[in-house]
Amino acid sequence: MEPPSASPRRGRVHWQGSLLTVSLLIFWSPSIPAQPTIESVPLNAAEGNDVLLLLQNPPENIFIYIWYKGKSAGNNNRIVSYTPQAQVNDSGPAYTGRETIYHNGSLLFQNVTLNHTGVYTLQISTILGVTQIAGQIRVYQSVTKPSIQASNTTVTENEGPVTLTCLTSHAEISIRWIFKGQILPLTERTTLSQDNSSLTIDPVRREDTGEYQCEVYNPVSSNKSDPLNLTVTYYDSAPESSGLSGGAIAGIVVGAVAVVAVVVALVYFLCIRNTAGYDAF
């Protein structure tokens, strides 16, 4: 008869053996290589700067790199190709002289313009076949100072709306409004146009008095307009007095009494003086 402890021991050995098997499977499982990708450095570029389309995780045993402008790998869109083994590059019809291909397949653009904005395709040929991946360049202009045009700069409180318009020569930009140096909070009396270029205040109130600016911006730059001063005039809402106040009336009475007292004293003095003169004769 087996001892009572025999069965648990066999179970423990079986569990340890299973763990060893799983460990070996994990150890011998082939790792999945990371897929090649293209990163734009920087992500957003100002016009006139350089941009690098950086190839990350390239495959092994590469025969040739070929860069194309656009999504299509047609020959007319070919910019440049590079053969690593021979260390030879060849320019294509889409080459402009601003592109430089590196031995690792990355492509540098120098002094970019707005026309460089778009998608670029890299074709990689290896012993396993052909792989195509895409990258994108985004180029923006540095924005210039905008200006503000107002329907009126001096208005009366609660009498008609005021519209401020931000004027800029740039497209594909964002606009925000600034009041007294702070981002303008929107209320039920303020309305923005769809592109934020126009600000309407209706009705206008005295607290709307102050300096307004508009700021235009894109991912690489921003610029503010000169301040525009809006003046809101208003009438004093306190009711006008229909008569003199009690203090004013009291002052008038006191003044009149004082005048009368002076006059009486003067007359009395003159009478006494005349009487004294007659007695002397």
TrEMBL record:
The chain crosses the membrane at residues 248-271. Keywords: Glycoprotein, Immunoglobulin domain, Membrane, Signal, Transmembrane, Transmembrane helix. Residues 146-231 form the Ig-like domain. GO terms for biological process: regulation of immune system process; signal transduction. This is Ig-like domain-containing protein. SUPFAM superfamilies: Immunoglobulin (SSF48726). Belongs to the immunoglobulin superfamily. CEA family. The keyword Transmembrane helix applies. GO terms for cellular component: cell surface; plasma membrane. One of its GO terms (molecular function) is protein tyrosine kinase binding. Residues 1-34 form the signal peptide.
